[in-house]
């Protein structure tokens, strides 16, 4: 079985995405996680280009990670000796066992951007690779713009690869730098290279400007590439790089290549979401394989089928990549959706109860509620149908006032009256808005009886105005996210009045927290 090597460039190419800025600690944290996952190569940055990368490489020398770290840089400058080139010296000083040298393979780029002769460019490639090999480094040669270069002047593009290979490069990586090629072009060109340079180890590096980075990488592998470069979640400059999170399972589960042990593949979803958290971007719910919705089923017919045979509507077992199957609750749901969701929550829902909840959900969605993202509100419906379930508190009154006071700006104040057991609690709180004040007052009213609520925090608040039908007022839908430690949940409320819609979602969130975290008084 052919082995494929993964080369991760999240810490360099991924960090070039315009809304990502990684600290040294961020880069170290991600590097540790990538190495633990089993990534074969981790490209860490460009030594000498900025103080942040210099600091990273100084600290990385002491990390002793179970992966080959690579430093990235370019070939020597024109008409300069390697030992006098600051870029090459910085690469050497980084201390990484592998170095990746990017060189030009497109004659147009050499003439119009590098502004040197075609022969000098080949000498720059040859000299730089040979010098690094002489220093005992593994050398990955990235042939920039290779596919464009091959289409424009195949002889010169191949000459750039031969220069690197003859100087001792360990890998020749064909870069689809502009991201505009299509899979059949990639396959044909990569196959031609493999035929011209038999016995060389080829890799591929794709960008996603045409939406084909993953497909293009797979096409190159079919034609002989055995190293795939990419980033976690496809982060990268412009619209991104080839997504290793999609490439890995495609290569291993669909194409039969040996990449990583199966137990490591089951960590893929966790890795994808971890990196998104560190780079401070919301994880894409609809990302293939690892998204929250990747194995979510909304249509009742679909759910009825997967309860009998999961592979009827799932291309793999989600557990193979560390994800899970779930059903989505909506007006399109059938009884099976609710029973599958209840099963995930550890609850047993009989047919009659499921039908009752389904009718309730369809009625509420007609009023403006939506439960697709508010699984906590659905779970509460299940619990409230249990004859043994006792609701932990009861709302008696609430009052909210918002005013703009001279010298103090906008001020919101809320009072809440709730009943906990036989005790009536009355609290007031100020906030930076009416919902914040209401949430604080409710939490203050309950924490004495339920101290666990001190750990609960509101993390997001979303409002959508729903157009009313002719002659009716518009409804407001509110979704509120809460968190306690690693637990997160979402509840929903809807009403013509935004405060009352918010109250519904807030009170459900507190009740759900007590169900989830324990409501010991």
Describe the structure.
The protein is of the alpha/beta class and about 525 residues long. It has 18 helices and 16 strands. A hairpin with a 3-residue loop joins β11 (about 395-405) and β12 (about 410-420). The longest helix has 20 residues, at about 500-515.
Keywords, separated by commas or semicolons:
8-stranded parallel barrel, 3-stranded antiparallel β-sheet, 16 strands, alpha/beta, 521 residues, elongated
Work out the helicity level: 25-40%
Shape: elongated
> How much of the polypeptide forms β-strand, as a percent range?
15-25%
Low-confidence stretches: none
How can the largest sheet be summarized?
8 strands, parallel, barrel
The total strand number stands at 16
Using only C-alpha atoms, the radius of gyration works out to 29 Å
Number of helices: 18
Task: Write down the overall mean pLDDT.
Answer: 86
Distance between the amino and carboxyl termini: 60 Å
- Strand order across the biggest sheet? 1-2-3-4-5-6-7-8
Q: From the helix content, strand content and strand pairing, which structural class follows?
A: alpha/beta
Gist of the model:
This protein is α/β, with parallel strands linked by helices.
Topology:
Blueprint: E1 5-8, H1 24-37, E2 41-45, H2 51-60, E3 68-74, H3 86-93, E4 98-104, H4 107-114, H5 118-134, E5 138-144, H6 146-152, H7 154-166, E6 171-176, H8 183-196, E7 202-206, H9 213-222, E8 227-230, H10 244-254, H11 262-265, H12 268-278, E9 296-297, H13 300-308, E10 326-327, H14 335-344, H15 351-366, H16 375-384, E11 394-405, E12 409-420, E13 423-431, H17 434-447, E14 457-466, E15 475-484, E16 487-495, H18 498-517
Parallel strand pairs: 1-2, 1-8, 2-3, 3-4, 4-5, 5-6, 6-7, 7-8, 9-10
Antiparallel strand pairs: 11-12, 12-13, 14-15, 15-16
Helix pairs in contact: 1-2, 1-12, 5-7, 6-7, 8-9, 13-14, 14-15, 16-18, 17-18
